Amino acid sequence: MPDDYLTTDDLPGAGPFVEMLVEFCGELRSEGLPVGSGELLTYSAAVATLNPGDLLDLYWAGRTTLTTKRDQISVYDRVFRRFFLGYDPRVPERIRKTWDRSEIENETVIEIPATEPGAPGHDEEEAKLGLNASDIELWRNKSFPVCTDEELAALRRIINKMRLVPPRRRTRRTRPTHSVDRPDLRRTVRATMRQHGEPSELFWRQRKRKVRPLVLILDVSGSMAEYSRHLLQFAYSARRASTRVEVFCFGTRLTRITPALERRRPDEALDRAARAVFDWEGGTRIGGSIETFVKQWGRRGMSRGSIVVICSDGLDRGDPAVLESAMEKLALLSHKIVWVNPHVGAEVDYRPTTLGMMVAEPYIDLILSGRDLAGLEEIAERIPTLR
Can you tell me the distance from the alpha carbon of 338 to that of 368, in angstroms, rounded to the nearest whole number? Predict the structure, then answer.
């Protein structure tokens, strides 16, 4: 055995169980596995936290700490079966008595699915993965209110990975380019004058592209309680994808939560945003909230040329005239207005039924649904196309 290998002499007070682990690691090393003293100490620490009398715990503790490559697993399995299931005389009798004799005699206790493609057990693994994918497809069209807690947790992890990228618009400023767009007369004339009037090359310019601002205004009133959390997490993902995204929440009044979403952890960001909104799950004043946005932020430049996404079911307790006036002003300032209504569902020909939606519909460019994962995916796909 190599000199750098840890032996029982280096472990004062080591009991018979530790001696057994040392012998087992020595067997693995003799079979060519790179098991040293560090791996032995890690293995011993892992076994100490498990049940030493359980062969499965003993097996997995060693497999996770003593093997580093896929081709080492077959060697590890062979040595493990020979050492522990073959009644190796070096295994102390007092340790063997702690194991269940029926488990020792039945080698299926450590029948682990193979990791190589095409090996036994690979089909079962593919079936399990396929089942998970089928579940996700099922959840994609399942409304948030009817999902279980486990399904909602899985959906939140998916929503956290979604990215809503704002579209780009062409500005009046131009930049040099090699593609044929519009001639750069000034640069071409200067180059010609340097050649004493002989035309040398024709230069081109094209318009610069700039990311359009994206404004998300989320309804967090009581009627939207079953959707607010998911829409807010969707807004957090959009904010993480682009810095030109502003997020507001409203119930009876408007609250800017963009600073609260500037957190790396989504749960912390959402909790801070929820604490910043004082009228969470309260009444609804859509017209007054939009009017506040136009006066305090929209006219100052935030909504100029932007895409405004309003997420609400349209149940407004305010004055319809205020809502109509606010929507008219917002339509004049912004580039496009998108309304996300969870009650749209899968209807092809949607017709507004609430008074708020009827008043706001003439000023809306696009109506989408945010009732499920498929609706949020459609939002992420359609908004970048609004040039």
Answer: 7
Q: How far apart are CA 170 and CA 77, in angstroms?
A: 63
> What pTM was estimated for this model as a whole?
0.57
Q: Which amino acid is at 352?
A: P
Contacts of residue 140, defined as CB under 8 A and 6 or more positions apart, other chains included, come to 372, 373, 374, 377
Q: What is the pLDDT of residues 96-130, one digit of tens each?
A: 444 444 444 443 344 444 444 444 444 444 333 33
Q: By C-alpha distance, which of 160, 387, 222, 317 is closest to 366?
A: 387
Q: What is the pLDDT of residues 333-371, one digit of tens each?
A: 999 999 998 888 645 566 777 888 889 999 999 988 888
Can you tell me the distance from the alpha carbon of 280 to that of 249, in angstroms, rounded to the nearest whole number? 9
| Integer angstrom CA distances of residue 343 from 272, 339, 349, 350, 387 | 28, 11, 13, 10, 27
d(CA 375, CA 141): 8
Q: Work out whether strand 245-250 and strand 336-340 pair parallel, antiparallel, or are unpaired.
A: unpaired
Strand (E) or helix (H) holding 205: strand 204-211
Mean per-residue pLDDT of the chain: 76
Indicate the residue type of 69: K
Measured between alpha carbons, how far is 343 from 211 in angstroms, rounded to an integer?
A: 30
Weakly modelled stretches of the chain, pLDDT under 70: 1-16, 51-53, 86-143, 145-146, 148-149, 151, 345-350
